[in-house]
Amino acid sequence: MSVSGVEVPEKVKEIVTGLKTGGLYLYAVFHLLDSSAGSASKYVWECKATAPKIEATKNNKQIDKEEFRVHYDNFVREHLASCEEPVYALFDFSGLRDLRMNIIGFQWCPDECTVKKKMVYASSLTPLKRLAGESTKVYETNDADDVEFEKIVKAK
Question: Beta 25-34 vs 87-92: how paired, if at all?
Fold first, then answer.
């Protein structure tokens, strides 16, 4: 449980572990769910979306930058750029050829969010970050320019 008392259910822990260790997922997107009914804490992390690992990158294989970028750009368009609520996303870059990148985290918090949402979100990220691991680079983002593919790859 985090400082704000937010719970991380077993299902979320399994998804993060599957992304980190087993290569089951290309990405996972999490959001805070108001769970005031029937839970010890007011909020709980919930998985909003996942995508299976790219077939061509299974078994530690890698694909070129342009092919990989298509998958990344779809992820950004569907789960970050169009999202009006704070989310925490993990994306597996290990399938990208010629770059030594693994899991990248995104703290997505659009400027349009209320101050209360931003504060609850910010104070609730610690348990998810811990699950992702210390080696996971995390970017604080709030618009599509922040998550542009070339910027992320260059900043690695």
Answer: antiparallel
